[in-house]
Specification:
This protein is an all-alpha fold and about 190 residues long. The protein has helices spanning about 15-30, 35-40, 45-60, 65-80, 80-95, 100-105, 120-135, 140-145, 150-175. Helices cover about 65% and strands about 0% of the residues. Helix 1 packs parallel to helix 3. It comes from Hortaea werneckii EXF-2000.
Length: about 190
């Protein structure tokens, strides 16, 4: 990483900071704090807000987890965030995304009708436009509105937006020293 990681225990062990560390540990259970946490914990309040937001994105949404994980993986591909890809590609498979769909995301073949469902193609087009252009064109947005309800659209947009934030943080600080490393498919 381009700066040292924060310590795994609070440098300033106030009750507030200890509570923040505990909330992050609780979300990560049974795993320990990960490098992303240790980068964010340079500012415990920011780490706490991040933890709450990303925790909600990951576990408090109604949209298909497989679709959300494919979107997150595509954000990683578009932004060159190898650590994000390495973390989320196995989660996409675990959530039910097919290996063929995940491989299409990795290769950028996100319009492949022979591999990707209509929903997957819509979500990936939304992900690409949001990541590259920020603005979603009206034609695509109308297609998304015809397929997903308002809550699902909000959930998809916050997932894509949130993980764009994550990838920019990961790449900007080179968390886990992954910049420039090849993204590969998870083992079978």
């Amino acid at each position: 990483m381009r700066i040292p990681y924060a310590p795994a225990e609070p440098a300033n062990p106030t009750p507030e900071n200890e509570a923040i560390y505990e909330r992050i540990r609780e979300r990560r259970k049974p795993r320990p704090l990960i490098p992303l946490d240790l980068a964010l914990l340079h500012n415990p309040e920011v780490a706490d807000g991040y933890n709450k937001l990303v925790g909600a994105i990951r576990s408090k949404v109604s949209v298909s987890q497989a679709l959300a994980e494919l979107a997150i993986c595509y954000v990683a591909v578009l932004n060159g965030a190898t650590y994000e890809w390495t973390s989320h590609a196995p989660l996409a498979l675990k959530a039910g995304a097919s290996r063929a769909a995940l491989e299409a995301v990795l290769k950028g073949n996100v319009a492949d009708e022979s591999v990707l469902s209509e929903d997957e193609r819509l979500v990936l087009a939304l992900t690409e436009q949001s990541t590259r252009n920020i603005k979603i064109d009206d034609q695509l947005f109308e297609k998304v509105k015809a397929r997903f309800n308002d809550q699902e659209i909000v959930e998809l947009m916050i997932t894509v937006s949130g993980y764009n934030m994550v990838s920019r943080f990961l790449v900007g600080l080179d968390v886990t020293e992954s910049n420039g490393k090849e993204m590969v498919m998870p083992p079978e």
